Amino acid sequence: MGIKLTMRRQVLFFLIFAFSSAGGQVTYSIPEEMSKGSLVGNIAQDLAIEVKRLKSGKARIYTEDNAEYIELNRDRGVLLVKERIDREALCAQTTPCALHLQITLEDPIEFYTVTVEINDINDNAPSFKKEEMKFRISESAVIGAKFVLERAMDLDVGMNGLQSYSLKPTDNFHLKLHSQQDGSKKVEMVLQKHLDREAQDHLSLMLTAVDGGDPQLSGTMRVEISVLDVNDNAPVFTQEIYKVSITETNSPKGTVVATVTASDADQGSNSKVTYSITNTLDNVRKVFKINEENGEISIIESIDFEKSKHFQINLLASDEGGLTDSCKLIVDVQDVNDNEPEINIMSKSNVISEDVQLQTVVTVINSEDIDSGDNGNVNCYINENIPFTLKSSTNNFYSLVTENDLDRERSSEYNITVTCSDEGVPSLSSSVTLTLQISDVNDNAPVFERSSYEAYIVENNTPGLSIFTVKATDADWNQNARVSYILEDSSVNGVPVSSYVSVSADSGVIHAVRSFDFEQIKDFQFLVKAQDGGSPPLSSNVTVKILIQDQNDNPPQVLYPVQTGGSVVAEMVPRSADVGYLVTKVVAVDVDSGQNAWLSYKLQKVTDRALFEVGLQNGEIRTIRQVNDKDAVKQRLTVIVEDNGQPSRSATVIVNVAVADSFPEVLSEFTDLIHDKEYNDNLTFYLVLALAVVSFLFITCVVVIISVKIYRWRQSRILYQSNLPVIPYYPPRYSDTLGTGTLQHVYNYEVCRTTDSRKSDCKFGRAGSQNVLIMDPSSTGTMQRIQSEKSILDEPDSPASYSIPEEMAKGSVVGNIARDLDVDLKRLKSGKARVYTGGGAEYIGLNKEKGVLLVQERIDREALCG
Ligand SMILES: *[C@@H]1O[C@H](CO)[C@@H](O)[C@H](O)[C@H]1NC(C)=O
Ligand SMILES: *[C@@H]1O[C@H](CO)[C@@H](O)[C@H](O)[C@H]1NC(C)=O
Question: Where's the Cadherin domain (predicted)?
Fold first, then answer.
């Protein structure tokens, strides 16, 4: 280190030097830290001692503490620095600091005192023990609050010692120094401005200590201040009003609709915010909930736009210290098309007449949809292909009106489906079905099943016999379809038709009023009117033709030869007549017709069978051999004329033939023939007498028998006993059905009430009322069918007869007709077997499946047979 003496020191130095040399002692002043070998002072000069003397006197330095900071150079007579001198180590804070040396000489012994003053130089900076100091200061600390800081140390003294402190920055704190009694200073830091943790939670200050040296040295210490939080800030929501919109049903429970956030500038628990909903009057708290911790608002109840269109949620945020903030959340609910249109029927008629005018209002309906916007716009329509249309009027009202004519007969009921759909996407719809009945109007006349009818009746019928039934149907309903049959007035052969037939108004059954005679009337026709019960009634008519069928009720009548009472007519045959000579011709007629009038001629009795024959067809009597002389003159032929009816009727005629060449010959022979005539007259008288007697006896017997039977019947009325059916034999009957020419195969059978001898028998056997089992009566039968008919004709016929008690229950079996008649069940079906009774009374029915006859109607013997 270089030596720099100030002017003041140099002056002092010279004063001390001057004094010392005079007093035998010398004082030097040097700065500390001089380098080794530096000159301290020229001792020889200052003590006025020659250098030789220093050498010869073996001058040397003596120090009390043997510290050898200074050495003596005897050659030059100067003092030099031997060791580095640190003033602070040598004297600490003591001032002044000096080294006291004795310089001793021998020969002679001399003694000099040298004082070397060591001067301080500023070689130490102020220093702090620690590098930093830490403070934790609440932001709420009051102004003026003091904080003691550590002091700094400076080993130098005087001006080189610690002089002052400074603290930077000075925003919040300033320094205050207090001088202590020991001269040191107490350093304090005083708060001069409030701390704000939220603005600055940490301050870093620098405390600097400086000394007064030149150059000035300094030491520093960091002051670290942590600002402690105080709950001086309320939470603050990020927005005052939040807005969110949600869709009603698309937001299920638990959906988070919004998250609100409030921030709190404080720290730790002072910044912990909890959220809550503060609505009290409305139902917001039932619908929403908020997560206290994170401010998530979620739905806890399904939201229905139709109930609430928006919600205002009042929210509160509070920190632990009780500071709060509030905000609003506006929730707008968006409509979703979640309601289907509602259809209300305002008024309706369930029944409508088929003749209503077009555009008649059937129903008024109203349709509403509580959704809003398009979701609530409703359109209605009805199903197609019905004679109705839906007319829209104002305010979602529609009227259902008739568009086309209605016809109950075509469709008596309509199911009208009204469908309403809204315009939402996707669209919702609903529908109702109205059932509309169409009521009847009498707009259809009865219609007969056929355009005309033909029926047959066998002559000699019993009056009251039902001939057949006409039937008409009416498409209308109930009373309008109730058909009555009326016989139209007309006349047949000048007689009103009502004296021939009557028509049952209810059933359309046509009855014969009288017994018909084919020989008088063969057919007639009339009109039957069918009239319904409507108002006004409608009607139609049909022609009915009745054809009367012939019965063989007339015997043949012989026209020739005429049978006279007294005279005898004879045909003459000359004895010369050849074979095949036409003797005469029997001429007969039959007023019946057809087979019944088809006559055949046979010889019944003949004197000589070998001589004559009669033509079967033409009634011609011819000779069949040569007449000879032996032949009697008088020949008597009885010719029988038979018709072909069933049973056949006949007439006989006696033909007298005279085989003679002359009339006198004939006359003689025929006198006994006249006697014969008288004989015959007597015989006739006796026969009549005998017949009268027999008839009387018979009637008497019948009366007696009937009396006895009635008596027994009364006695045993309860003791009824049924008998097995008796099947008598009936011959087959062929009948020619008029007009068609086909043959019917007919079985006759007889149903008897009982065969009990105590009761009178009652049979369905009266004329025209037989129960006839008819096989395939179709007039349109094919050739093949006729063949099958014929094959049946060939089979042996076995008419069946059954006997049943009266009052049998419906469905009771009368008899097994298939077995008894030996008819195959299949045949019954294929032949469309059915029961035909002339009287039209349907007491007995045929079950084709089982081949049995069944009771179809309760049979009351007394009603039937009296
Ligand atoms: C109408 O609906 C009813 C009940 O579904 C049904 O019985 C009836 O047959 C329907 N009528 C028509 C004409 O479809
Ligand atoms: C029967 O009906 C026809 C038309 O079907 C009609 O012309 C005629 O006048 C009617 N006759 C009587 C007697 O009602």
Answer: 29-128, 129-237, 238-343, 344-448, 449-558, 573-670
